[in-house]
## 1
Amino acid sequence: MTISRRRTTFARRLSTAAALAALGALIAGGPAASAFDPATEAKNFSKTQERETIWGTAQYQAQLRQQGAENAATAIATQAADPERNFIGYHLCATGDDGCAGDVRLYDWEEKGHGIVEPVLFTARSGATISGHVWATKSGPSKRPGVVITNGSVQAPEQLYWFAAQTLAKAGYVVLTSDPQGQGQSDERGEAPDEDEGSPAQTDGRPFYDGTRDALDFFLSTPSNVYKPRISCDSGTSHAPKQNRRVLAGLNAAYNPFWKMLNPQRIGLAGHSFGAAGVSYIGQKDPRVSAIVAWDNLGRPGTSGGLPVKPCPFDPDSHADAPITKPALGMSADYGLTPTPFTADPDPLAKSQSSLAYSAAGVDTGELIIRGGTHYEFSFIPNPGFGGTLRGIDQVAWYTNAWFDKYVKRDSSADKRLLTTRWQNDAAEAAIDPDHDGNLFSFYYRSRLDIKRGSGRFKCEDIRTGCAGMSPNDGWTGSYSYLDVANSPDQ
């Protein structure tokens, strides 16, 4: 058993034991709020293990074991061939096996003619080497909007977000996925004198904020405007010499290999967890960004008052608060990072506070909460320690695409997809749900949308029950599946 698998299995046993103990106490007659129903909560909480029906089959497990072994062998060979890099032995997901592999059904995307992808390396402002991929399709317009995705922290390598990258690419976007410094196959440490800048990523925080802007800089680079790292935060050093040296050695990319396709005037940011906090800020701060999607969850437009982020002494303005001006969609779920059953009804507006602040500022926004979902609805982790619902990830892909279609691509038909009723009565959800309820929206928390629509406005404070203006006629035929979209022909 790998270290990753041992850790996640042990974590799952602890969290499951605690959850079952808490739920058992409830059902045995513990105190409850008047409106709270322990039996209903038990069914709702059981949905956190629905995704195991996908990756728990013998066929999927065999494919996962094979892909994990290939990933590990490739990672070890990569580190050996490029000894300047430092990721093996530092990061939980450095070798990309087991729960770090993501959805293995997406790995042969280019080989099977579903799209095109290029691996890239570039130098962060700290001097760390960042590892990523750029995604697109051969077919499509000559110029396309783009999206940069920022990962969550710890067990969150870029493979977990390839579902979003591939569906966005199929929708006509150029997409960059990468591992922030301190995760996956990006370096743990920077270059002297900035070895400690950004490390450890989870306590430093800057890889999810400054790292998002570094990734955006690389994404928008061209042959006439090659990528150049910004000066480091801690010492003010330029690590451009390292970037240039590695480009000359054929290691780093000098610029985005798909630059010809990219329309630099139409850029979106998506991020998960710590990455959601990062894109919530950088999306407002950086004038090159048009719109934001934050996966668990939309944050404030600053670096204070939330997850810990160290300052940037040599560019303090880069961490100053920004006004809310860009449209942003938040998505979250009933249960958080360590799913635990409820013992009372939660505040129905608890997850919507940032979205409500956007509405107060007069900026288009939304907050959609997945029923029975967890923090891992937004990343595909094939391991029992990281449960998720069956259809939540499809809902995430749907609304992420629709939001960017409206505010980045500026496609007027996106309104139909945002105001669809399909996720209130999904057949696949109903088939697996304990009560055959096909509504994916939380009944504990209120999902909302507050957006411009034509010359008017659509505002709904409870998407689960629905509002006037919503319709099943969203322009999509049949059931929606991110896997079907990703694995469709490139045409």
## 2
Amino acid sequence: MPIRTRPQMTLETRAKLIMLARDAFGRQGYAGVALNELTSAAGLSRGALYHHFESKLGLFEAVVDQMDDALDDAVERATLDAGGGWRGFREGCRAYLRAMLTPDMQRIMLRDAPAVIPNFANRPRMQLCTAQMVASLEALMGRAVIRRADPGALTNLIAGATTSAAAWAATRPDPASALDAVGEALDRLLDGLELDQG
């Protein structure tokens, strides 16, 4: 049996804590999670948790970072699978909405993270996503695929509407049906940007 190195054990402990925390935050919300219960489930001391994450907020931010990674991957995969361009952009928006179907995404990313993480909407990761979206829309305008508008304003309008609508759908009695309705409404909005290619 191979001997695990200290860095391997550290990574395994972090991964275990993040996995347990994601489940707990997803079910109970940020305020409802007691660190003692989390460390007990992980078979660790509270001191070990603080060694890896410094605080409950630090652990929560690590969970959000992991969820952001998965969300970015889903959007990028959908964009590429659709062949990029305008169709890819639209499919990326749809992939974001599909990701929001899971209860832990709804609870953590749509409700708790904006309320708990300081300056959540303006963190570096969000600024990078915004810059990429601006560049995509500028390129589409440059190729006369969509109507011209201020790309920064358009990016914030589309991203804001999509995120707000996903948060709204998460509060409906049937979130899946509500998200389908949001996707259809988003399509109608994006249809209005498209230029006739004929």
## 3
Amino acid sequence: MLAPDDSSRRAGTGLARPAPWSGAGAAGEVVWGLCAGSGKNPYQTIVDLSGPAYRCSCPSRKFPCKHALGLLLLWAGGGVPEEPEPADYARAWLDTRREKAAKAPAGEVRDEAAAARRAAERAQRVAAGLAELQEWLRDQVRAGLAAAATRPGAAGHADAIAARMVDAQAPGIAGVLRGLSALPWSAGDDWPARLLGEYARLHLLARAHERLAALPPGLAAVVRSRVGYTTSRQEVLGRPTVTGHWLVTGVRDLVDATVPTLRIWLRDQDTSRHAMLLTFGGGGYWQDPETAGLRAGTELHADLHYYPGQPPLRAVAGERHAAPARGKRPEPDGGAGGLLAGWAAGLEQDPWLTTWPALLTGTPVPGKRWHLVDPAGVALPLAERESLWTLLAVSGGNPVTIAGEWNGRELLALTVWHEDEAVALWPV
């Protein structure tokens, strides 16, 4: 455990929320943020994940202090946006560390070797944490799923192991585990099956990490991403360029995220290739204001750079070749059969996939459970939202082109087209 004692752990957990933080960010292996304290000026907190190493301007003699622990927990929960470069005070601290390393006596390990050693140490910590996770998963199945049925608002059954994954520097897994505590009271009567399925996916991820070096590069990148290894924005911008006329098919604000987050779906008008952009907010501004300003129906002639992994979905917008303009209604990818086939192909490449872009034609049919019926008569369940009435009004009971997200169980409609006019079904 990184916490020096139990009181520091509890205090750090109390700071793992957006309220006391401002200007937080992450770039590569460094995370930073300003934490409001009792003094006039906020505390400057920095964590070098490759160490890990810490620096905080607070007077605490504990190491790491509660602010560093809180920042780590906030980052592990997805509450720290990615930034292209560290803040000035974080960069100054990193430069000082590098200068000290460069002035080290002859015979000491060079920076490159030290970085490799730190990477190996992190891999060992992750491996040890995932070994504990597998034991925890076996205990859950052995004891039975009923123990997971905690009441809303109570401490979740997976909170302790999630905190252990933060210590093990596996924040991606920690985020999944925290979400499991809500399943018994938010997923309906089939929560035991869904919980058991999530346990199986976590077990598969832990086993895949054991064989990371033997996996094909694309799958290895998926495993690293799902565990929580980060790829900086600058690294992604250095990857191959994909130029296209990208139509914004849907925009969703992730209201359950720790920090304001927009998920923006794009589709190339020429190749029908999909992409997904994420941008984060904090301190009253968006990480990428130009991306945050995109709306459904807008066409963007730009370069995209995809993150490593498979299938290629998440991307970063690079150079823009023209100002955003109003686009035409897109041609659907196909019916429900095409959507399900794409989802199956995506799962084949990424067994931990949770969201898939949908663009199809169908007729909304209201009822106790709303459905979208495609021209072949195949019905897909629609996620319950007030905006379904807007969808019905635009369609007038006729087939319409709809864009949204498929999660394997239901379709979340984000946009519907009335001729060439895109109507947003998710407020942003």
## 4
Amino acid sequence: MKHVAHWIGGKSSPGTSGTTGDVYDPATGQVTGTVDFASADEVDAAVSAAAEAAAGWRNASLARRSQVMFSFRELVRTHTDQLAALISSEHGKVASDAAGEVARGLEVVDFACGIPHLLKGSYSENVSTRVDAYSIRQPLGVAVGITPFNFPAMVPMWMFPLAIACGNAFVLKPSEKDPSASVLLAELLAEAGLPDGVFNVVHGDAVAVNALLTHPGVAAVSFVGSTPIARHVYQTATSAGKRVQALGGAKNHMVVLADADLDNAADAAVSAGFGSAGERCMAVSVVVAVEPIADVLVGKIAERVAGLRVGPAADERAEMGPLVTGPHRDRVAGYLDSGVREGAALAVDGRSHPVSGDPAGFWLGPSVLDRVTPDMSCYTDEIFGPVLSVVRVPSHDAALDLVNANPYGNGVAVFTTEGGAARRFVNEVTVGMVGVNVPIPVPMAYYSFGGWKSSLFGDTHMHGTEGVHFYTRGKAVTSRWPEPGPGTVSLKFPVNN
């Protein structure tokens, strides 16, 4: 079986804590390896290596940093199949989905390659007589990324390329469920010419996380995960004086107005609800059907779900894979029973969906709960699996009120053929990312990614120019070069003249 070690100071670093975790192949249910769990001492070693490296890396030229990013970009491209295979073997998503994850991560690397332009400051001559003023942005030091299981390559790549390009060193704590992709990324960064210690990987559980959140050598923390953990990360790290962006959970709605193209809407609902087995923070989990179209829409969704092929990544025709663990699969499946008990109608039961893979895998087919109401647990909870809930509402206003009343504000979509209705929805909805006839409105790398309300703790979104600002701090400089000759002493408050 494989063994996944830490990556500290530019090399593989086997754990010394004596604690490990099992790594599974979700498609077979079998343990395929182990991963070291870091102790507080090992976290300290990683942060110390990063701090030492950051002292030199911050002075590397912008041209040098950009060259490393360009080299890393090409290496990831040539190793996409290898990265995708690692993701599929530990997460379970099908090969095309895993390759798509790598591609979306590369978009941020592409953006980071432009760091010389992104870090340009400003300059004003003669703000006062022979006095000039300018601004610069400088790196923070050591930044930390704590990332979830559902995107073991993409989410880290939404963090570390910008952090490193801005002149910081980075410590990544990936999910212990699928840790191998992060180590391969570390190896590719080293091959790209990144100095030892600028990028480090420590695996583990809450011990490692809390050690990073409170370590005095850490300046900033980026996190993606569930809302309860995001809140803990934010409160703990900010109390320790760190800059934090903590992206939490989601309950993404897809509002289908009565004038929408229902075939297009059904295609989008199935694609966005069941891709990656629903284990996406931007997956559609609630379809809000504005009457009188609900019956027709649910019927079209059910027709499409019946034709989905569920199977392992080895099955080239598979469109949806297993869930990441057995306990998670069982928890998700439990919402089908609780939903019915609470009054929902089980329009599609994924437990009977055919599967082309090993029966011991963590399978649950795509499921649809109809006539869901906002008081049901299948609506209030973040299920994070292939369960699509349909809520029926009487009007556009009712749909908007439903979305705005939800405590989460990550992503939302509206499907309509009427421009005025779409514009009003975009203007009034209290959600951070909005799609118009786009079911998964993940922004391009040069825009920011992040939600509102309980989907984000902190005031800065991820990647884009907000990412550059998160990983740097501003410095304003006022400069005067006096002409030769005697000066004067003045205790007056300085004013511009």
